Amino acid sequence: MKRIAENSFRVADKVRLSEITTVENYGISDKELKKELEKVRRALGKFQDTLYAHGKYGVLICLQGMDTAGKDSLIREVFKDFNARGVVVHSFKVPTELELKHDYLWRHYIALPARGKFSVFNRTHYENVLVTKVHPEYILGENIPGINSVSDIDETFWENRYRQINDFEKHIAENGTLIFKFFLHLSKEEQRQRLLRRLALKEKNWKFSPGDLKERKLWDKYQDCYEEAINKTSKPHAPWYVIPADNKKGARLTVATILLEALKKYKDVQEPELDEKIKANLESFKQELEKEDK
Fold first, then answer.
1. 183 φ, ψ (degrees, to nearest 5)
2. What's the pLDDT tens digit per position in 79-105?
3. Which of 35, 45, 202, 231 is 20 to 30 A away from residue 139, measured at CA?
């Protein structure tokens, strides 16, 4: 199997999405990819237990991608061996009335992982420089001072948003949140095939929305917005990874492997040592329990 190198997918310099492949050759079958994923996710599950006991870091995983990119199934398969108390998944939809009464980062801030836990954002705070940039009229619903019409939303507005997102991520990183951002890079043809499968298979019909076709017509505009967002916000403390996503099993293994390899670098994440007094009396505690009446 071809080795999955974390730095091969991490965005360190400016990228052009049109020049990055959506198909990765792993050199093994889909069945073998699934077996490899099972090994990696077990190791991730063990790390999560240790992280929970250590209690000093939280891990934020951000997933972005076009419709049908495979975010839901990736979450299901990669985090299958996690203790349920240690990982929380947040799927961010259209902002609610309450959320719109706050700044756009508020609903994401309150969903950040507690120390010792993982949070997975299925769609993220980046929607605020993606879907809103493709549909700037959505910004008007935020009731921002000085923004009274779409014509008020100029390039300075978007530059400020990139800066605000970078500041937000730097702040939480400096306070113990480990950030991983994955863009599931899907080809337009593969999306077409997946939409057709949703229409062909009765059990998948519920996933289809006519709105998917409307957004598909804006494919190039979305790609431009993703490319700009990734280039402006991939930082050492909050890197973006562009993951070839035409093969779902390969994408899942790639994400899981990157997470495991990056997290293993945090050598300070260890289970806490027992207090010396407790350790010295373990035998007496054992004897006390053994003497109890059954």
1. -100, 115
2. 999 998 899 999 999 999 999 999 999
3. 231
Kindly give, in sequence order, each residue whose CB lies less than 8 Å from that of residue 108, ignoring residues fewer than 6 positions away: 92, 121, 124, 125, 168
CA dihedral 92, 222, 170, 71 (to 10 degrees): 50
Q: Half-sphere exposure (CA, 13 Å, Cβ side) for 216?
A: 20
The CA distance from 157 to 144, in Å, is 11
Q: How many CA atoms lie within 13 A of 97 on its CB side?
A: 0
Q: How far apart are the first and last CA of the chain?
A: 54
Residue 82's CB is within 10 A of a number of other CB atoms, namely 20
Rounded mean pLDDT of the chain?
Answer: 95
Query: What is the per-residue burial (b if ≥16 Cβ within 10 Å, else e) of 40-76?
Result: bbebbbebbeebbebeebbbbbbbbbbbbbbbeebbe
At 294 the pLDDT is 62
Q: Rounded to two decimals, what is the model's pTM?
A: 0.93
Per DSSP bridges, beta strands 177-185 and 58-65 are parallel
* Sheet arrangement for strand 87-91: 87-91, 118-122, 58-65, 177-185, 240-244
